[in-house]
C-alpha cells in the first residue's frame, strides 16, 4: 500500500472509530447493535431494528444523525398514513394576482436519515411508497422523479410481539434492508446506567464528528478494501447454502427453509464485511468478517416453513448450521 493510501485509510479509520465512540457515549449497552448499525450505514444500506418498546431504538437513530451531522426526520407509521404523507405531494401555489400553479411539497422522506417508526403498522400501499426510495434513492410524484439527499438511509423499527393491527412487511420490502438487527433487552448493569444517564437534570451534548461529504468519502474508501478470492467464494457458498433447492445445502435447510437469500444477500455480506474489516483496523476482509455479518445480512432473507415454526427453528439457527457446514476452503 502506498503512503498516501495508508494515510487516507488511517484517517478514515480514525473518523469511523470516533463515530462509534461518540454514539456509545450516549447509549448505554447495545454495543454490538451500535456497531452493526454503523457498519450498515457506512455500507450505504437500510436497517430494520426489531425489539421491544423502550429499548432506545429511536434514541439511537437520533444520536446517529447528530454525530454524523446529517439531517434527520421521523415518520410515525399508522394505519391511516397515506403515501403522500411520506413522499410529499403537489400543492396549488397561488401567487398574488396570478394564476395558481402546482408546486411540489417534499415529504419527510427528503432527509439524510429517515426513522420509519413501527413501519409494519402502515398499510401495504404506504409501505410500498418506501420501496423506490430505499432501493433507488428517488421518489416519483405525478410522472416527475426527485432525487433524495445524499447520503440517504432508512432506519425502520418494528415491535416483534404486538401484532394486532399490523401489516407484516412483504418479502420484496424485507429484501431492501441491508441488515435486520434484533435489539436485546438490557441487563442489570446496563439498565442502571440507562437510568443514571436519562434521569439527570442535564443531558450531555452530542458532539458532531463528521458530515455528509466525509461519509460519502468513507463509503467510497470502503469499496476499495480488497477481498481475497477464497474469502469471496466462502461468502457466496454461505449465501447459496440458504437455498433449499441447492444441491450443496445442509439437510436442515432443505427440511426447514421455504426460500433462501436473493443475490442482494451476497451483496450485503460482501459490502458490510468490508466495513467491519475497516472498523477492526484491517485493510483486508477475513473469514471471521463474513461469518459475523452473515447473521444480520441473511436472517430476514431466509423464510422458514411450517415445520420450522412447529419445531421452534429460527433463521439464526439455520445460519448457525450453515456456518458450521460450509468450509472456509473447498
Keywords:
about 325 residues, alpha/beta, Rossmann fold, Helicase, Ruva Protein, domain 3, 2 domains, five-stranded parallel sheet, two-stranded antiparallel sheet, about 45% helix, globular
Description of the structure:
The chain has 330 residues and is an alpha/beta fold. It has two domains: 1-223, Rossmann fold (3-Layer(aba) Sandwich), CATH 3.40.50.300; 225-330, Magnesium chelatase subunit I, C-Terminal domain (Helicase, Ruva Protein, domain 3, Orthogonal Bundle). It contains 14 helices and eleven strands. A hairpin with a 2-residue loop joins strand 6 and strand 7. Helix 9 packs across helix 11 (263-279) and helix 9 packs parallel to helix 12 (287-298). The mean pLDDT is 86.
Question: What count of helical segments does DSSP give?
Answer: 14
* Main pleated sheet: 5 strands, parallel
Please trace the helix and strand order, writing H or E for each element.
HHEHEHEEEHEEEHEHHHHEHHEHH
* C-alpha-based Rg, rounded: 21 Å
Write the SSE topology.
Layout: H1 3-26, H2 31-42, E1 47-50, H3 57-67, E2 72-76, H4 83-87, E3 88-94, E4 100-106, E5 113-117, H5 124-136, E6 138-141, E7 144-147, E8 153-158, H6 171-174, E9 179-182, H7 188-198, H8 212-223, H9 229-240, H10 251-256, E10 257-259, H11 263-279, H12 287-298, E11 303-304, H13 306-310, H14 315-325
Parallel strand pairs: 1-8, 1-9, 2-5, 5-8
Antiparallel strand pairs: 3-4, 6-7, 10-11
Helix pairs in contact: 1-2, 1-3, 2-11, 9-11, 9-12, 11-12, 12-14
Amino acid at each position: 500500500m502506498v503512503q498516501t493510501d495508508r494515510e487516507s485509510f488511517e484517517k478514515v479509520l480514525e473518523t469511523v472509530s470516533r463515530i462509534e465512540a461518540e454514539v456509545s457515549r450516549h447509549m448505554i449497552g447495545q454495543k454490538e447493535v451500535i456497531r452493526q448499525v454503523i457498519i450498515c450505514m457506512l455500507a450505504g444500506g437500510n436497517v430494520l431494528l426489531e425489539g421491544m418498546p423502550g429499548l432506545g431504538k429511536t434514541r439511537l437513530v437520533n444520536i446517529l444523525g447528530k454525530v454524523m451531522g446529517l439531517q434527520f426526520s421521523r415518520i410515525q407509521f399508522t394505519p391511516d398514513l397515506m403515501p403522500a404523507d411520506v413522499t410529499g405531494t403537489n400543492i396549488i401555489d397561488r401567487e398574488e394576482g396570478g394564476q395558481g400553479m402546482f408546486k411540489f411539497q417534499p415529504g419527510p422522506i427528503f432527509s439524510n436519515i429517515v426513522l420509519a417508526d413501527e413501519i409494519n403498522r402502515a398499510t401495504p400501499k404506504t409501505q410500498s411508497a418506501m420501496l423506490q426510495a430505499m432501493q433507488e434513492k428517488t421518489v416519483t410524484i405525478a410522472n416527475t422523479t426527485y432525487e433524495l439527499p445524499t447520503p440517504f438511509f432508512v432506519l425502520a423499527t418494528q415491535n416483534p410481539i404486538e401484532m394486532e393491527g399490523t401489516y407484516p412487511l412483504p418479502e420484496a420490502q424485507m429484501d431492501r434492508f441491508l441488515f435486520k438487527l434484533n435489539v436485546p433487552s438490557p441487563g442489570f448493569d446496563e439498565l442502571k446506567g440507562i437510568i443514571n444517564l436519562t434521569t439527570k437534570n442535564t443531558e450531555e451534548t452530542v458532539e458532531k464528528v463528521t458530515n455528509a461529504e466525509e461519509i460519502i468519502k468513507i463509503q467510497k474508501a470502503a469499496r476499495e478494501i480488497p477481498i481475497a478470492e477464497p474469502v469471496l467464494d466462502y461468502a457466496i457458498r454461505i449465501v447459496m447454502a440458504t437455498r433449499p433447492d441447492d444441491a450443496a445445502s445442509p439437510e436442515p435447510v432443505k427440511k426447514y427453509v421455504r426460500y433462501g437469500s436473493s443475490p442482494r444477500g451476497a451483496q450485503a455480506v460482501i459490502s458490510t464485511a468490508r466495513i467491519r474489516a475497516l472498523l477492526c483496523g484491517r485493510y483486508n476482509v477475513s473469514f471471521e468478517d463474513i461469518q459475523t455479518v452473515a447473521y444480520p445480512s441473511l436472517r430476514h432473507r431466509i423464510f422458514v416453513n411450517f415445520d420450522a415454526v412447529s419445531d421452534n427453528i429460527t433463521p439464526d439457527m439455520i445460519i448457525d448450521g450453515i456456518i458450521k457446514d460450509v468450509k472456509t476452503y473447498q
